[in-house]
Amino acid sequence: MAKTVIEVRNLTKSYGEGASRVEVLRGVDLDIREGERVAIVGPSGSGKSTLLHILGTLDRPSSGEVRHFGRNVFALPDPEISRFRNEKIGFIFQFHHLLPEFNALENVMLPALIAGYTIAEAQKMARQVLERVGLAQRLTHRVGELSGGERQRVAIARALVLRPPLILADEPTGNLDVRTAREVANLLLQINRSYATTLVIVTHNPELATMMERVLGLSDGRVIELSPDKPWPWSQEGLE
Q1: What total of structural domains would you count in the chain?
Q2: How far apart are CA 109 and CA 86, in angstroms?
Q3: Which class for 102: exposed (0-12), middle (13-18), buried (19 or more C-beta within 10 A)?
């Protein structure tokens, strides 16, 4: 049986206090295993991105237990959490968050440089992964010289450069046209198959969601298992 990458028990997350307190997550239980492809869907405001940020250690839970690769990462000091995040988790966002003053190669080098690799080592690693995502001819192009799909490919390359075992993607196709969105989705599937990388995607795109092995619905602060080929508890067209 594949190893458990993320184990979540009775996870809660709330914001504010007293009468203004808002409960976003209310007792989430979840296991994600090595190499799985998982989509998280739900109505707008259901807490999908909040959950993903906690899984990625970008935000802390209010209560409950979250284990990554068997470790309670939130028990570590902040510098160690940051190091763990950089080395073990790759992030892909709807808006690529690339640095416009850098070219594609330089953007992808950043996680490797932060991890302590030399410039020469980081360049080699970045070049290899950019070639893998089909951008061998665009290495020295700055962000403003790239199309939307190319920018997202650079962002995917940046997420992959350290070969992290876990990729978290928040609406990775949400800012793309239909054709480019499908290309990016297929690229993510190829990466999952080639590297056995665990892939967790928050999406409002039903087509992308049903390409995953598992679809998890988030509603009323709790996670439920959904079947890709059966109606979901809310309108798929209404997902945002």
Answers
A1: 1
A2: 12
A3: middle
Spatial CB neighbours of 121, under 8 Å, sequence gap ≥ 6 = 112
Distance of alpha carbon 25 from alpha carbon 37, whole angstroms = 22
User: Which amino acid, residue 20?
Assistant: S
Residue 126: enclosing H or E segment and its boundaries?
Answer: helix 119-132
Instruction: Report the side by side order of strands in the sheet with 166-170.
Output: 89-93, 166-170, 198-202, 37-41, 214-219, 222-226
The length of the chain is 240
Start-to-end CA distance of the chain, whole Å, equals: 34
22 belongs to a structural domain = no
pLDDT bucket at 104, cuts 50 / 70 / 90: very high
* Structural domain range at position 193: 36-62+77-231
**What is the pTM (predicted TM-score) of this model?**
0.85
